[in-house]
Design goal:
By secondary structure, the chain is of the alpha/beta class. The protein is built from 9 helices and 12 strands. The strands form 3 sheets. Strands 6-7-8-3-9-10 form a 6-stranded mixed β-sheet, with helices on both faces. A 4-stranded antiparallel β-sheet has the order 2-1-4-5, covered by helices on one side. Strand 9 and strand 10 form a beta hairpin. Helix 4 crosses helix 5, helix 4 runs parallel beside helix 6 and helix 5 crosses helix 6. The radius of gyration is 19 Å and the shape is globular. The termini are far apart. The model has no long low-confidence stretch (mean pLDDT 92).
Length: 266
């Protein structure tokens, strides 16, 4: 029987430089689910995403992504099926690269186009993806001259270039103004509603969750506070526990907000 889970994490832990970063993580993501991972700074969100991207090995437990289990699969091959977009990646790209070059390098998860040969089909696909994210007019423009919102949407196009089976976004809206955030949320919502691939997004802010998302994982101190459908996990009590801050969560038209009710706990 085909495994319905795109991600399966069982009793996983992660220790980095002697510090326990993740503890006893049990998490399942089905093919038809779109997850947001929420938590404060240092809660382990990005570390969990790196595990799922096969960039780090779990220190304990088991990890299976798209049918490949860490320790029993060639991670170089497994990574080719996983798309990851992050601010760290954006900062690693040479600012004189053109938008079109950045998208095409996504085919091989490369940082430079120097050692690759791109076909007319590659260029056509990259151009189409630039149009999809609203950046077609910037194809020949150096990415160092683009706005932060345009650069973040460019990362989405780059992630989509090799047609990944799993899409991962690490704080995609970080550093964006209101207009840039809403443009990116709308783009992520379109990907979520497409329904063809599982998607996981890490964020600090409930306001950044696109309406098309279905589930949430809440982390605090490297442990899971709650995991499940949005309506069951994004409650005032659970979000307050996650951030150690008394907040009131509200939802309207598929969007969520969190408002502080009292001063931070001592």
């Amino acid at each position: 029987m085909r495994n319905p889970n795109a991600i399966s994490v069982s009793n996983a832990g992660l220790v980095e430089d002697g510090t326990v970063v993740l503890r006893e993580i049990d998490w399942r993501v089905s093919i038809d689910e779109r997850w947001v991972v929420l938590g404060a700074n240092g809660s382990g969100k990005t570390s969990l995403l790196r595990l799922v991207a096969f960039q780090r090995a779990p220190s304990s437990g088991t990890l299976t992504v798209l049918g490949d289990t860490w320790g029993g699969a060639d991670v170089r091959v497994a990574r080719q099926r996983i798309g990851l977009a992050s601010t760290a990646l954006l900062q690693s790209l040479r600012p004189t690269l053109t938008a079109l070059e950045v998208v095409m390098t996504g085919r091989d998860a490369a940082l430079e186009p120097w050692w690759a040969s791109y076909s007319d089909h590659d260029r056509e696909r990259a151009g189409g993806l630039l149009a999809f994210v609203g950046c077609a007019a910037h194809a020949d423009q150096a990415i160092g001259t683009l706005s932060e919102g345009e650069r973040k949407r460019l990362l989405v196009a780059r992630l989509l270039m090799p047609e990944p089976d799993l899409m991962l976004f690490d704080e995609p809206c970080a550093g964006l103004d209101l207009g840039g955030r809403e443009a990116l949320v709308a783009l992520l919502d379109e990907l979520a509603r497409d329904g063809g691939r599982p998607l996981v997004m890490v964020t600090h802010h409930l306001e950044e969750i696109p309406p098309g998302f279905t589930h949430a994982l809440l982390l605090r101190g490297g442990r899971i506070v709650a995991a499940g459908p949005l309506a069951e996990t994004l409650t005032s009590d659970l979000v307050s526990t996650t951030f150690d801050l008394a907040v009131e969560v509200e939802s309207a038209s598929g969007r969520y907000t969190a408002r502080v009710k009292t001063a931070p706990r001592s």
